Amino acid sequence: MECVLDGGKQxxxxxxxxxxxxxxxxxLEVLSLDQCPCKTRPPLPFKTRNLLKxxxxxxxxxxxxxxxxQYQVLEEIGRGKFGTVFRCFHPSSNQFYALKLxxxxxxxxxxxxxxxxxxxxxxIFLSPHPNILKIIDAFQDGETSTIVLQLCxxxxxxxxxxxxxxxxxxxASLIKQxxxxxxxxxxxxxxxxxxKPENLLFDDGNNLKLSDFGSAEWFGEGRPMSGVVxxxxxxxxxxxxxxxxxxxxxxxxxxxxxxxxxxxFPPFYGDSAAQIFEAxxxxxxxxxxxxxxSVSAPAKDLLRKMICRDPSRRISxxxxxxxxxxxxxxxxxxDLS
Length: 337
Ligand SMILES: Nc1ncnc2c1ncn2[C@@H]1O[C@H](COP(=O)(O)OP(=O)(O)OP(=O)(O)O)[C@@H](O)[C@H]1O
Known about the structure:
Strand order of the largest sheet: 1-2-3-5-4
InterPro entries: CDPK_Ser/Thr_kinases, Kinase-like_dom_sf, Prot_kinase_dom, Protein_kinase_ATP_BS, Ser/Thr_kinase_AS
Structural class: alpha+beta
Protein name: Protein kinase domain-containing protein
Family: Belongs to the protein kinase superfamily. CAMK Ser/Thr protein kinase family. SNF1 subfamily.
Shape: globular
Keywords: ATP-binding, Kinase, Nucleotide-binding, Serine/threonine-protein kinase, Transferase
Radius of gyration: 21 Å
Helix content: 25-40%
Order of helices and strands: HHHEEEHEEHHEEEEHHHHHHH
GO molecular function, one term: ATP binding
Strand content: 5-15%
Distance between the termini: 46 Å
Number of helices: 13
Bound molecules: adenosine-5'-triphosphate
């Protein structure tokens, strides 16, 4: 996962500040002074400000260390670029969670730190939503940063696709849940920018949960995004072209996932990352007959509308939710009898 820092784009509503103070210290640290009500007070002398900052940091780390003790860390359940994920138990709530532990020394530059900050901030900002992974807590002590998350099943959508193509009603149900999550993100001016099957988890009730907001970014009218972010196979062509882009990059990636769910393989592939990128840039969408003979025309129609090279002609997540194939639950007319 590639992360870029596109500085100064944090947006936070005041109404969310109470949530932020409750959720823990990582969040407090990333709130910029611009958002703080005390901005209007006369500035403190430089030395006093520094002393105050050091004291606050020590207090946060102490509180973080105390919070960490409240979780019993159990077995490892996954590993990412920056951290290790463990199953954990929280005795006072009698609940199991996933605990993501990041060693601060591995966050070597500002872009890495930004990934961690935006991940927690975005999840709080978007919460609650039935298809977005719930954040329980976030804190840090001197050496580590911790994010406590709702615990999901070990198998991601990647594992399900690896087992073979999915039937249309199943694929329709999953893509609908992803589109619901994205419609919510986009309505709040947040793009995920790293939609891929590995980031789609499932809770105990088999509900799809969008996770890993480390590449997310705020956008808005007259405020396009930029930077090469995402994963091969799923990244949109306009991202690779180095152009400014909008939230439709998430729709492209979701279309690629839908294609993979229905066929068992991605629409654009190659032997190396460079070859995959070339295929994505060509954006030549094909439906090989051997595989797609049994896929319905409405499903292919939605794929064409989502995996559309021109972002201005590409369907939005909200529009995709109203596509006939989604509305029918992926049931072919012949299957209705
Ligand atoms: N809430 C969770 N419940 C269950 N398993 C999880 C949870 N969160 C993460 N995992 C597992 O841990 C793995 C690593 O997660 P993590 O979020 O650290 O990595 P990542 O951000 O997807 O990877 P990278 O940073 O390399 O992109 C995931 O692939 C998943 O299998």
